[in-house]
Amino acid sequence: MHPIILQKNQEILPDKLQKILPKIISENRLSSYKNLSGINLSFVPLSKRLKRENNLATAGNELIKNYTEIESDFLTFFPEVINYVKNRNARNFTYIYFHVSIQLLAVSFQQ
User: Fold this and answer.
1) What digits encode the pLDDT tens for the residues 74-93?
2) 108 and 63 in contact (C-beta within 8 Å)?
3) What is the dihedral sign for C-alpha 14, 16, 19, 23?
4) φ and ψ at residue 51, rounded to 5 degrees
5) Region 46-52: what's the mean pLDDT?
6) Would you give the DSSP letter of residue 52?
7) pLDDT at 69 over 80
8) Ramachandran region of residue 28, left (φ > 0), alpha (ψ -120 to 50) or beta?
9) Which of 10, 73, 74, 88 has a Cα at 20 to 30 A from 80?
10) What is the mean pLDDT of the segment spanning 36-51?
11) How far does CA 13 lie from the centroid of its chain?
12) d(CA 51, CA 62)
C-alpha cells in the first residue's frame, strides 16, 4: 500500500496504527512485505513483542512450505471480504483489511 494512501486515510485507521504510521512510512516497512523474505524477517520482531510463548519466529518456514495452499485460500476468500466490507461500511474498509489480513496469516499457521 502506498504511503500517500495511508496518510490520506489516516483518520480511519485505529489509534495505535495512526501513532506508528510515521515510523512505518519513514522506514518503508510495507515495501518489505512484497516478497517472502521480507515477510519472513518481520516474524522475529513480532514474536518478541508477544507476551506469551509462541512459534511466530519460525512462521516464515511454514509460510514458504504451504505457500501454494495459503495463496489459493487467500485468492478465494479475500475478494469476498472486500465486497462484503464495501457493501457494509466503506469507512471501515482499511481497518478491516488490515485485521483480516493478519487473521488469515494467523489461521494459516495454526493448521
Assistant:
1) 899 988 887 877 777 655 66
2) yes
3) negative
4) -75, -35
5) 87
6) S
7) yes
8) left
9) 10
10) 86
11) 14
12) 22
Strand, coil or helix: 80? helix
pTM of the model: 0.55
- Whether residue 81 contacts residue 100, with contact meaning beta carbons closer than 8 Å, is answered with yes
Q: Residue 71 corresponds to which cell in the numbers above?
A: 495463496
Tell me the CA distances in angstroms from 93 to 9, 22, 32, 52, 84, one per residue in order: 11, 21, 23, 30, 9
CA distances from 108 to 8, 84, 92 (A): 31, 21, 24
Classify 35 as helix, strand or coil.
Answer: coil
Residues ≥6 apart with Cβ < 8 Å to 32: 38, 39, 41, 42
pLDDT band per the 50, 70, 90 thresholds, residue 111: very low
Q: How far apart are CA 81 and CA 63, in angstroms?
A: 21
Phi, psi values for residue 7, rounded to 5°: -65, -40
Q: Specify the amino acid at residue 7.
A: Q
Dist CA 29 CA 22 (whole Å)? 11
